[in-house]
Amino acid sequence: MVNSGKESLCYGLILFCALFFSNTLVANEEKKDAPLSIAGTTKVNAEEIFALVDKTPDLIIIDARIRSDRIQGYIESSVSLPDIQTSCSSLKKIIPSKSSPLLFYCNGVKCGRSGNSANIALKCGYKNIYWFRGGFEEWKSKNLPFIRK
């Protein structure tokens, strides 16, 4: 059976409305805050990172954000490893030992990427993990230095 032009237009409008309203609902969905803590990690704030770097020269800082976020700026000497690319294999390529000190950060308390990455590292057997919950948002709000490309 062949649809008339009016039926095709009607089906098209229904499809458009369904897609538009489903995307609007997703876009308006409020992001949840990152957890207050992650078992097996040590939570640090921006000021504590300076002390941590001083006493832990082999600290590896991992930026768990995606490329489009990192382009906005990043903490100096951090390594880009987005949470969506974090696995035991990708961690092993940049971290010499499971006892190496690691610090994960992302955009801030509304971003779950660093928490995801820290949890993956824990599951992979890494033991010395720090988590910067406030992330880049806190870093910038305190006017701390960062690299911008």
Please characterize this protein's 3D structure.
The chain is of the alpha/beta class. It has two domains: 1-30; 41-141, Rhodanese-like domain (Oxidized Rhodanese, domain 1), CATH 3.40.250. 42% of the residues lie in helices and 12% in strands. The protein has six helices and five strands. It has helices at 5-28, 46-55, 67-70, 88-94, 113-123, 135-141, and strands spanning 41-44, 60-63, 79-80, 102-105, 129-132. The protein has a five-stranded parallel beta sheet. The longest helix is centred in the first third of the chain and has 24 residues, at 5-28. It is globular, with a radius of gyration of 21 Å. The chain starts with a helix and ends in an 8-residue tail after the last helix.
